[in-house]
Each structure stands twice: as C-alpha cells, then as structure tokens.
Design a protein that fits this description.
The chain has 181 residues and is mainly β. The protein is built from two helices and ten strands; from the N terminus they run ααββββββββββ. The protein has one domain (2-180): Beta Barrel (AOC barrel-like), CATH 2.40.480.10. It binds 2-acetamido-2-deoxy-beta-D-glucopyranose (2 copies).
C-alpha cells in the first residue's frame, strides 16, 4: 500500500499537468486552491483604412466639437495576438463596445468580451468592463465575468499602449490580465 502511494506520488510529480497546459501567452498560477491564470497578449485596434476593426456606430450632436470626442461610440472586433506583431499567433478577439466617456480628460468606457481561440482556452472568454484612460501609461480595468474555462471569473486587466499613431488613432495595446476563476 505504501509502495503504491509512493509510486502514485512519483507519477504525479513527473507529470505536472497544470504546467503542460501553459501557453506562451497564458499561464496557470499556483495560488493555493483558487485557479488563477495570467494572460498576456496584444490588442490591435485599427480605426483607419479600408478594413478597420473598430467602427463608429454612434455619436452625439456635440461630439465633433468636443476635444475628447465625448459621446462617440464604437463597435470593435479587434484581434488579440501573442506578440506585438499583427502577424504573430492569433489567440483571440475582443468584441464589443467602447466609447468616449470623458468630457474633461480623455477616457474610454470599455464593455468588451475577450474571446480566446488557442489551446485549452479556445471557446472561453472574459468580460472586461471599466474606464480606460488611454493617455495614462498604465490603465486598470475589471474582469467582471467569464465563460468556459473562465466561468465565474473575476480579476483585473492592466493595459499599456505599445504603439499609437496619433494621425489615425490606430493602436496596439499590451494586456496583462490576472483572472481568478
Ligand atoms: C477552436 O474551436 C473551434 C470550434 O470547436 C474549432 O473549429 C477550431 O478549429 C478551434 N481552434 C483551435 C485553434 O483549436
Ligand atoms: C503582470 O501582472 C502580474 C500580476 O499583477 C505581475 O506580477 C507581473 O509582473 C505583470 N507582468 C508584466 C510584464 O507587466
């Protein structure tokens, strides 16, 4: 019996299942019970050109006169990739609405589903809601829920602008998300 227990212990030590499911952009963290995953990916938001990934779907009559475009509302279907390069591995898409919610300072209210398509995360999503003060170096938004692997998720997303073109408004944003689920 003791031998069997020892053999099982050795087998379990030799097969760290949690680690084998780790992906370059998504890692399970050991948090002593509560499943915790850290996700690091890049969000590509293209508003210019012939194939924008975010389009303006509404605005207020005063939006064009506002320095912060207060009231502009966009629908996004933005690719999420493993690296900063758009041609790096696609890991998911961020779909939903964001809009200019700041009158004094620039701020975007974000209500998006980040759905993933890679490895064990394929088909799972997290819902991100919060104010994104996009001109700040680091912004924090809340993860308010999830589906699939991320069912019952809560957590936080840190966003950092990796690249921004002020002429067009196109941006690449680095995300670092910690989710408890
Ligand atoms: C993700 O799941 C869908 C639907 O089950 C499947 O068609 C697709 O090939 C999967 N993608 C990857 C990258 O595993
Ligand atoms: C990502 O976030 C985690 C948790 O907040 C932190 O420990 C880690 O240093 C961050 N990594 C980067 C590259 O910002």
């Amino acid at each position: 019996m003791a031998k069997l227990a020892l053999a099982l212990l050795l087998i379990s030590m030799a097969m760290p299942w949690a680690q084998t499911q780790d992906l370059k952009w998504a890692k399970r963290l050991d948090s002593g019970g509560q499943p915790t995953t850290n996700l690091q990916f890049y969000f590509h938001d293209t508003v210019s050109g012939k194939t924008p990934t975010a389009v303006r779907v509404g605005q207020a009559s005063q939006t064009e006169k506002s320095p912060t475009l207060f009231g502009a509302l966009l629908m996004a279907d933005d690719p999420l990739t493993e690296g900063p390069d758009r041609s790096s591995k696609l890991v998911g898409r961020a779909q939903g609405l964001y809009g200019s919610a700041g009158q004094e300072g620039f701020g975007l209210i974000m209500a998006l589903s980040y759905g993933f398509c890679d490895g064990i995360y394929n088909g799972s999503s997290i819902s991100v809601l919060g104010l994104n003060q996009a001109l700040n170096p680091v912004r924090e938004m809340s993860v308010v829920g999830g589906t699939g692997v991320f069912r019952m998720a809560r957590g936080y997303a840190e966003a950092r602008t990796h690249w921004f073109d002020p002429a067009t408004g196109d941006a690449i944003v680095a995300y670092n998300v910690t989710v408890f689920h």
